[in-house]
Task: structure prediction
Amino acid sequence: MKNKYQILIIGGGTAGIMTAARLLKESKTLDIALIEPAETHYYQPAWTLVGAGTYDYKKTGKPMAEVMPKGITWIKDFATSFDPKNNSVSTKSNGEINYDYLVVAPGLVMAPELIEGLPEALEKGVVCSNYTDPEHTWETIKNFKGGNAVFTQPTTPIKCGGAPQKIAYMAADYFRKHNLSDKTNVVFATPGSVIFGVEPIKKTLMNVISRYGIHFKPSYAPIKIDSEKKIVYFKMSASDENLCVINEDNVLGEKETNESNKVIEMPFDMLHIAPPQTAPKFIRESDLVNDAGWLDVDHHSMQHNQFDNIFGLGDVAALPTAKTGAAIRKQVPVVVDNLMKLIQHKAADNKSYNGYSSCPLVTGYGKMTLAEFDYKSNFTPDPKLKRMLVFNSDKEHWRLYMFKKYGLPYLYWNKMLKGQDV
Result:
């Protein structure tokens, strides 16, 4: 294997594969290598449906070799460090690999250790998470007999920020269908101050919360889990707790254990959590990150703010928008355009990415609303939805649910990963 490539891509997830495929569509003569150690590529957006028992986990993965674009060199290895001044990346087994242009897209990693007791709770199966084992989530929901079913998320950025609440809605719907609602308190606790930052979507979701009688706990940041006693501890992340949309709060058995630090303990019979998430260690320890530890790139061009021949996109990028495949779909064309311009000795002046992301918010079996938005949290629905006879995508719709379950996976495997416009 040679040790120098024109374009080197780190990461065989959505961003890396899409970028490679689209570059080859621009020019078959490009000399591209992609570093990715994993054998399997997963379509993770379907894991919400797996956790609700309505999608087969096996169908969410394909061999990496199948999705790797033909015509690029796959380096099956781990990237370990960068030397951006000398245009090289170190790898675990293949030594240093040099490049003219670098695309950094390794995604993010789960960091359960950032919440005390969470690694042990996940290991023992006391806590479930669609982010790590959606099949276990489904087993937990199926075997639930009543009590406090708590759903929460961390203070760190996470992939698909809506996922922790989607599974809460699906579980609430499942409990209702199986006559468990009367003996169940479904709780959604979030460090955020609102259920969703896009106004029309927020309105719909507050109606969903009301319909299921969910106890909504804004400003609740999980800090510790006691697996033995089955208690989750929250720190109040703001003083405006009265935002809660709640009936008979004391039914949850909540106690304030530390008044000065505002620590709340809540017993649970089921707990679903999105673990804290960070950029991978080799990224965090590099010269390429901002103060928060995410890849420091221009918000509109995805070009690195310090090194002109480096681009970063996807979940690892320090972009103030939701970390989703839909965001990547809009980021890739901009990155590819800028790379091609640099190769032709032109300026990387495409700054057209406006922060677009979307979150398909499943609100029950056969129901979904689609949040599409930009950096300014403007609601930006795709005009193509009208072809599906969806005229108000901020409202719940069965057609949107069918689109998530059948349409999006098809488009992902057959169009997006092949570098085609969707």
Summary: Residues 37 and 258 are 45 Å apart (CA to CA). Confidence is low (pLDDT under 50) at residues 239-248. Residues 325-343 form the longest helix (19 residues).
